[in-house]
């Protein structure tokens, strides 16, 4: 990289007079160096249309992506004045309160925060464990279907849940897993009925009668299954694209060598999709602490209202509950803000770490 | 020569066919359920008798157009429905407007500070301020809008669906998806167009957009579906105060939690009569058609997506793949 410069790199001899003069290349280089800022200004003027095109985007991002960061100042303040800036500085008191450090040990909000933080981690970790392999398996299965028409039909079907609104999905989940009320002649929800017929233990039966999504025991499992159901088809697109890009000659070569179906899987398909899998896995790990709050909010709108709140409250829904509705104030909102900020900061560290690993391992940067 | 199929291959094939067909049925079943429940007897719906066919009170086959006609005649519902159309149409247009322009500019190597711009976008994916701070910010920006338009000094003085349209459209993932697609357009074509005297906007409009149709369709669908399905922030911003601006998703949820007992909590006639007037829908809990009416609304709310989605679906594989992995 560092080449030792000799004099004839930038000097050349004039054939006629025998005098040395600066080589044209070097003079060009000097010229560019001298005019660097002038050229930058010139380019800016020449490409002004490009910069104009950025303006609407900058407007939206500054106002609704970056200005909310300014609101976080309220975390470090105390009191109830309307303007956060008018309040007295409180340092990290709100964080200490939320974490239950020192005098704040064991208060109501501390317990809530740790419960929510644990739930956030558990829900997203289970999501990774069960939700991640499912789309890959789906893509491998899709590869087996030779009829293009049938495959397209199936693909249209399995992508569909991803495009339903959270309100519709949660309403249907609540309806299909609805509890029963014998006095009014109300049966179990359609899916609950099937599950009770399959499992049928007394404990499960009584939980099902109260509505399975309101049972703290079964909430996590059902939530993860419903998430996998929602996202798997759509998630399989990436893997399926990787699988069909494998050249048929690879399979043929393997067949000639006498490889059976499982061996083809093992030695042809898996090595070829591995890089995609690794990248997606790293991305998933990076987003470990960002659980979709909309669905959880709709399944558990307020604290203490339903049986599932111990399993379903995550940090963002907790913050929402602390900042709106009855019994909340600017003070509790600041607690919520501190909780969310902790969660999101750890999440950011995970994302950056995951990206660094991806860069090192697969030589790709995801961003 | 036709190769003989091995046993393991055959088994794997059978498993994949069976599994995929079952899973596809599972994915479609909720749609069938909604359709069937809408046209079932309302009491059968309320008692969870509906499974696969329009059901009568006794659980047998029986058709009832009651819920559907109630909702079609409800002027309230159509107001919320049109709000959703408003937010989806203008919101998608607005999002596409600034996303296409920004993606085009950012795809150019000659743009200065590309790394800084990249960071500007990606940081929003790494760290978000959270629900509380975002809500405070909506309040503040809504206040600014109210002052500019001269309609008052609080966010509730303006029509909040406008705030939802303008404020909610930013999505860095979609922008990067589109930028990568634009980067894939060969620069020779651009140069040729430039020599022919095309301006920057003409190049974007007549070269880049036609050449990245798949990604543009995908991104537009993502924006559109996001707008159509948006619930949380619309509800959080408008609350109970600006009901007339609610999109239909918020209304459906509100209706379900007030009248059907589906969302849990204690459910009795007393709270019901307290909550009765606002919706103007002709239903009565004692004849029990609220749940069926809710399904009719759900059905109407998913029809537009079912209409648009198959046309765009074929672009997914192309559009999504270009995103993912690139600087």
Structure, described:
- The complex is a heterodimer of chains A (367) and B (327).
- Chain A has 367 residues and is an all-alpha fold.
- Chain A has helices spanning 7-10, 24-34, 36-46, 48-71, 93-99, 108-131, 133-144, 148-159, 166-176, 190-198, 202-209, 219-244, 248-256, 261-286, 293-299, 309-312, 315-323, 330-362, and strands at residues 11-13, 20-22, 77-78, 88-89.
- In chain A, a hairpin with a 6-residue loop joins strand 1 (11-13) and strand 2 (20-22).
- Chain A is flat and about 115 Å long.
- Chain A starts with 6 loop residues before the first helix and ends in a 5-residue tail after the last helix.
- By secondary structure, chain B is mainly α.
- Chain B has two domains: 7-71 and 262-301, no CATH class; 75-240 and 315-322, MetI-like fold (Orthogonal Bundle).
- Chain B has helices at 7-38, 42-46, 66-73, 75-106, 114-126, 131-149, 160-167, 172-183, 187-195, 200-211, 213-229, 232-238, 248-259, 269-274, 290-313, 316-322.
- Chains A and B meet through helix 3, helix 4, helix 7, helix 8 and helix 9 of A and helix 1, helix 4, helix 5, helix 6 and helix 11 of B.
For the structure shown, list the relevant keywords:
heterodimer, A: 367 residues, mainly alpha, MetI-like fold, two-stranded antiparallel ribbon, 18 helices, 4 strands, 67% helix, 3% strand, B: 327 residues, 2 domains, 16 helices, globular, disordered C terminus
| Neighbour order of strands in the largest sheet of chain A | 1-2
Which architecture of the largest domain in chain B would the CATH scheme give at its second level?
Answer: Orthogonal Bundle
Q: How many structural domains in the coordinates of chain A?
A: 2
Number of DSSP-assigned strands of chain A: 4
| Average pLDDT of chain B | 84
Order of helices and strands of chain A: HEEHHHEEHHHHHHHHHHHHHH
- CATH topology title of the largest domain in chain A: MetI-like fold
Low-confidence stretches of chain A: none
Termini Cα gap of chain B: 46 Å
- Residue share in β-strands of chain A: under 5%
| Oligomeric composition of the shown chains | heterodimer
- What is the mean pLDDT of chain A? 83
Name of the CATH class of the largest domain in chain A: Mainly Alpha
Weakly predicted, low-confidence segments of chain B: 265-287, 322-327
CATH class bucket of the largest domain in chain B: Mainly Alpha
């Amino acid at each position: 990289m560092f080449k030792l410069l000799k004099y004839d790199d930038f000097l050349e001899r004039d054939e006629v007079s025998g005098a040395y003069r600066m080589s044209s290349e070097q003079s060009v280089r000097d010229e560019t160096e001298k005019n660097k800022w002038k050229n930058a200004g010139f380019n800016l003027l020449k490409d002004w249309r490009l910069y104009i095109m950025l303006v609407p985007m900058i407007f939206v991002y500054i106002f609704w992506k970056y200005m909310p960061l300014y609101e976080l100042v309220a975390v470090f303040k105390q009191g109830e004045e309307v303007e956060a800036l008018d309040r007295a500085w409180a340092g990290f008191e709100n964080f200490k309160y939320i974490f239950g450090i020192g005098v704040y040990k064991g208060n109501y909000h501390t317990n809530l925060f740790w419960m929510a933080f644990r739930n956030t981690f558990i829900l997203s970790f289970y999501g990774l464990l069960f939700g991640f392999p499912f789309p890959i398996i789906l893509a491998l299965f899709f590869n087996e279907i030779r009829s293009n028409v049938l495959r397209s039909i199936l693909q249209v079907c399995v992508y569909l849940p991803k495009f339903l609104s959270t309100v519709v999905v949660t309403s249907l989940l609540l309806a299909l897993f609805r509890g029963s009320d014998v006095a009014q002649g109300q049966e179990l929800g359609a899916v609950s009925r099937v599950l009770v017929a399959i499992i049928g233990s007394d404990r499960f039966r009584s939980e099902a009668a109260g509505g399975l999504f309101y049972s703290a025991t079964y909430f996590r499992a059902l939530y993860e299954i419903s998430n996998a159901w929602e996202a798997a088809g759509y998630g399989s697109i990436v893997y399926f694209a990787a699988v069909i890009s494998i050249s048929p000659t690879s399979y043929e070569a393997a067949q000639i060598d006498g490889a059976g179906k499982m061996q083809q899987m093992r030695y042809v398909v898996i090595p070829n999709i591995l890089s995609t899998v690794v990248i997606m896995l790293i991305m998933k790990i990076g987003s470990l602490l960002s659980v979709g709050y909309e669905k959880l909010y709709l399944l558990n709108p307020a604290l203490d209202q339903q049986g599932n709140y111990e399993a379903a409250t995550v940090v963002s829904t907790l913050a929402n509950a602390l900042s709106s509705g009855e019994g909340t104030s600017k003070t509790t909102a600041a607690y919520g803000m501190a909780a969310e900020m902790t969660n999101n900061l750890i999440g950011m560290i995970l994302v950056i770490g995951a990206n660094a690993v991806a860069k090192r391992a697969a030589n790709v940067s995801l961003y | 020569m036709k190769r003989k199929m091995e046993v393991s291959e055959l088994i794997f094939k059978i498993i994949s066919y069976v599994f995929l067909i079952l899973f596809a049925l599972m994915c479609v079943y909720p749609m069938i359920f909604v359709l069937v429940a809408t046209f079932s007897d309302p009491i059968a719906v309320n008692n969870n008798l509906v499974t696969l066919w329009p059901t009568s009170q006794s659980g047998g086959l029986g058709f009832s157009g009651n819920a559907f006609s109630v909702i079609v005649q409800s002027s309230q519902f159509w107001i919320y429905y049109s709000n959703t159309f408003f937010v989806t149409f203008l919101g998608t247009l607005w999002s596409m407007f600034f996303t296409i322009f920004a993606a085009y500019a950012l795809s150019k190597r000659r743009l200065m500070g590309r790394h800084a711009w990249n960071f500007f976008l990606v940081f929003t994916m790494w760290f978000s301020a959270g629900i509380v701070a975002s809500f405070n910010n909506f309040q503040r920006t809504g206040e600014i809008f109210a002052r500019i338009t001269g309609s008052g000094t609080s966010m509730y003085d303006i029509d909040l669906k406008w705030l939802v349209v303008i404020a909610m459209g930013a999505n860095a993932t979609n922008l990067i998806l589109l930028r990568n697609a634009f980067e894939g357009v060969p620069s020779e074509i651009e140069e040729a167009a430039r020599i022919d005297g095309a301006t920057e906007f003409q190049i974007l409009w007549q070269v880049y957009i036609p050449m990245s149709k798949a990604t543009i369709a995908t991104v537009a669908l993502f924006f559109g579906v996001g707008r159509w399905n948006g619930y949380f922030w619309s509800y959080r911003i408008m609350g109970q105060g600006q009901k007339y601006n609610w999109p239909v998703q918020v209304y459906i949820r509100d209706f379900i939690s007030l009248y059907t007992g589906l969302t849990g909590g204690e459910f009795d006639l007393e709270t019901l009569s307290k909550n009765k007037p606002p919706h103007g829908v002709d239903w009565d809990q004692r004849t029990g058609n609220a749940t069926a009416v809710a399904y009719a609304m759900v059905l109407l709310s998913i029809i537009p997506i079912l209409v648009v989605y198959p046309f765009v679906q074929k672009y997914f594989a192309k559009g999504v793949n270009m995103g993912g992995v690139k600087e």
